[in-house]
Specification:
- The protein has 138 residues and is mostly helical.
- The chain has a domain of 82 residues: Arc Repressor Mutant, subunit A.
- Helices cover 65% and strands 4% of the residues.
- The protein has seven helices and two strands, in the order ααααββααα.
- It has a two-stranded antiparallel ribbon with strand order 1-2.
- α2 packs across α5.
- The longest helix is centred in the first third of the chain and has 22 residues.
- The radius of gyration is 18 Å and the shape is elongated.
- The protein starts with 8 loop residues before the first helix and ends with a helix.
- The mean pLDDT is 95.
Length: 138
C-alpha cells in the first residue's frame, strides 16, 4: 500500500468528484428529473420569471459545462413543468413544483448513501482538509 501522504490529492479529489456527480445525477434521473432540470426548477422556485440566460448565470456553479440548459428547459416545457411567457421568461407550473419536490424528498437518501460508513467527525475532517488545500493554492 502506498503511503497516503504521498498519494496525489488532485487525482483522488477528481475521482471523488466524478463518482459523486455520476451517482447523484443517476439517482436524480431515476427519480424523473435530470440534474440540470432539477436545478432549473429549483432556481425558478426561488425566483420565477427568469430568462434562460439569467438562469444559466445563476446556475453556473451547479451544472456541468456540457449541460445544455436550453434543451433541458425545452424538455421541462414539453413535460408541462414550466411555461414560457411572451417575453421569453420561464415560470414553474404546479406540476413542475411537484416534480421538484418529489425529487427533493429523496435527496436525504442520496446524501445518506454517500455518507454511509463515514463518521461525522471523519466527514468534517475531510472537508476541513479539502478547504485548507483550496486556501493553500488560491
Amino acid at each position: 500500500m502506498n503511503d497516503p501522504v504521498l498519494e496525489p490529492a488532485a487525482y483522488w479529489t477528481g475521482e471523488a468528484h466524478r463518482a459523486l456527480i455520476a451517482f447523484t445525477r443517476s439517482r436524480e434521473a431515476a427519480l424523473g428529473l435530470t440534474h440540470p432540470q432539477l436545478c432549473l426548477l429549483g432556481a425558478l422556485l426561488e425566483q420565477d420569471g427568469r430568462t434562460i440566460g439569467e438562469l444559466g448565470r445563476a446556475l453556473r456553479p451547479h451544472i456541468a459545462t456540457t449541460d445544455d440548459l436550453p434543451a433541458e428547459a425545452e424538455a421541462l416545457l414539453d413535460d408541462g413543468y414550466i411555461r414560457v411567457d411572451a417575453s421569453g421568461r420561464l415560470w414553474a407550473t404546479a406540476a413542475g413544483r411537484e416534480a421538484c419536490a418529489g425529487v427533493r424528498r429523496h435527496l436525504p437518501e442520496i446524501t445518506e448513501r454517500i455518507h454511509r460508513g463515514i463518521a461525522d467527525a471523519d466527514y468534517d475532517a475531510a472537508l476541513a482538509v479539502l478547504q485548507q488545500m483550496i486556501r493553500n493554492v488560491t
